[in-house]
Amino acid sequence: MECMFDVGEAEKVKQRVLQLGPQCERQWGKMSAAQMLAHCTVSMQMALGDVKPPRATMGRILGPLIKPMALKDGEPMRRNSPTAQELLISDERELAEEQRKLCGMIDRFSAAGPNGCTNHPHAFFGALKPQEWSKLMHKHLDHHLRQFGV
C-alpha cells in the first residue's frame, strides 16, 4: 500500500509533480496542469484540516458503500469522479508556482504523519482514519498525475 507518510514515497510523487510541463497533454477532464496541481493542493489541505468542506448529501448515502472500493489496494481512482465544490479550480494558474505549492504540501503532510490528519469528515466518504487519508491522498495524486501522463 502506498503511503504518503513514507518520505520515500512522498519524494517519488514530488518527482512526478516536477515532471509536469507544457509538453504534458491532458488525457481526460477539463483542468489544465496548473489547475490540477492547485486542486491537489487544496485536497491535501482538506486532509490536514485547513479546508473543511461540508458533507455532501450523496456522500452521506453512498460514501460508506463506495469508500472500501475507492481505497482498495491496487485500484486506481476512476476518471471523472465527482469532487467537492471547494476543490474545483476554474481560474488560470502558473504551473511552476503550483508545483512549488503542491510539493510543499506533500512535504508538510508527510512530515506531520498520522497526527497531522484532520478529524473533520471527508466531504464524500465521511470519517477517515489517518492511514485512509494517506492512501486517499496518494491515490488522488496518482490519478491526476496519470491524467497528464506522468
UniProtKB/TrEMBL annotation:
InterPro entries: DinB/YfiT-like, DUF1569. The lineage of its organism: Bacteria, Pseudomonadati, Acidobacteriota, Terriglobia, Terriglobales. It comes from the Bacteria. This is DUF1569 domain-containing protein.
